[in-house]
Design goal:
4-stranded antiparallel β-sheet; alpha+beta; 5-stranded antiparallel β-sheet; 19 helices
């Protein structure tokens, strides 16, 4: 958060930054003052009675490229430039906790070593302190080992976790990162990734949102990806296909496939399992369809050829709808009534053709659709039109 100049001011003599948010908060406590480096970057707010100041919790970006780009007269830039260069370098990468981290560094400059060598552990220091902390609490905390700090911050101080977090790259250290890290480390699932040499946070945080996905071998393999957008796409596809497989298994009264799904090594294997189950279910339904409509369709008015073939049974009509992802199977009653005939087009494109029988008994081209009710190319339409004209001509003769 970069404060607009109208909401802050800098006292050159005291080196103090004042922030006035009273209009937003509607209370006197919205008036804050941030002490200089020599005052341990203490944050205070005006008491409700307006008679004094009390320690407060407040955070904003003090060191960033955006602050550096502000006019030299801007209070935030002037305050930032009053902080020692080494301290600014320590906190620049953090999008959250800058003020409490600066306060920690001002009290114990030796904490800069932690910032350089274990930035994620350093970033978690404020989570180990009370909202309002003093010098003794900072000194006690910064005297602890990295593992002790992790244990205090997220409840796990193992050597394994310390090594794991050292492999994480591309952290932005913002509030969402902190939330997702807490979720990730609250589950033992992260241990399944300990063997990896490096971890791209842009990809890893996708999985932090997906509870239980690390149990899937194929999902874990995606953690190697560098393109987070592609990983999100593949995880979304995994989610949809696994849900479909579980649904198919339930409909077919098969055992729960969850254990088998977790063993699959790739999206290709998952897709193959899905397609296999779908084909078996469609086969069952086709048989039920044919049993219900046991007789064949009326003979087609125009015979087929290598490119255009008549559909002659209810089961085949059902299968055509499945293959082409449309609802042609619902036309079964119309075909039996002689109101239309359905053909399977094989080239130049795979398509489904409807021939209509008009009131005076003439043939007319009805619908011509490719998969998912898409529109065919002009070449496909011309080929079908030519076939129909030739067929009608033969009937007339």
């Amino acid at each position: 958060m970069i404060l607009d100049e109208q909401y802050c001011s800098f006292d050159d003599r005291k080196g103090m930054l004042s922030v006035d948010l009273q209009d937003f908060i509607g209370q006197r406590s919205g008036l804050l003052r941030i002490h200089p480096w020599g005052g341990a970057v203490l944050v205070e707010r005006l008491s409700e009675d307006g008679e004094g100041w009390e320690e407060a919790s407040f955070d904003c970006l003090v060191v960033s490229d955006e602050v550096d780009a502000l006019p030299s007269s801007h209070p935030m830039r002037r305050y930032a430039e009053s902080i020692p260069d080494w301290a600014r370098r320590c906190v620049r990468q953090f999008g959250m906790n800058q003020l409490p981290l600066l306060r920690i560094l001002s009290i114990n400059p030796k904490a800069a070593q932690l910032a350089r060598h274990a930035p994620l552990v350093f970033w978690m220091l404020p989570a180990c302190l009370p909202t309002e902390f003093d010098r003794s609490e900072v000194l006690a905390l910064t005297a602890k080992t990295r593992r002790e700090i992790l244990l205090h911050a997220i409840g796990d101080g193992t050597k394994s976790l310390l090594k794991f977090i050292s492999k994480i790259r591309n952290l932005t250290f913002d509030p969402l990162d902190f939330e997702l890290l807490t979720i990730l480390f609250a589950s033992p699932d992260w241990k399944k990734l300990r063997h990896l040499e490096a971890l791209n946070w842009d990809v890893l945080k996708v999985f932090a949102r997906e509870k239980g996905w690390f149990e899937y071998s194929g999902i874990r393999s995606l953690i190697h990806g560098e393109d987070s957008v592609e990983v999100i796409r593949e995880v979304t596809l995994w989610r949809r296909l696994t849900a479909d497989v579980c649904r198919l298994a339930h409909v077919m009264r098969q055992p729960d496939p969850s254990t088998d799904l977790k063993r699959l090594q790739s999206l290709r294997q998952l897709q193959a399992l899905h397609d296999s189950l779908a084909a078996r279910l469609n086969s069952q339904r086709k048989a039920e369809f044919e049993e219900r409509y046991g007789k064949p369709f009326p003979p087609p008015p125009i015979p087929g050829n290598d490119a255009i073939q008549p559909i002659t049974s209810a089961g085949d009509l059902f299968q055509e709808g499945v293959a082409m992802h449309h609802c042609v199977g619902s036309y079964v009653e119309r075909v039996f009534a002689g109101k239309c005939f359905i053909y399977r087009v094989l080239s130049p494109q795979a398509a489904t053709l409807e021939l209509l029988i008009t009131a005076d008994g003439k043939l007319r081209l009805g619908q011509l659709k490719i998969a998912c009710n898409g529109q065919p190319t002009e070449d496909t339409f011309t080929s079908v039109r030519r076939w129909l004209d030739e067929g009608v001509g033969k009937i007339a003769r």
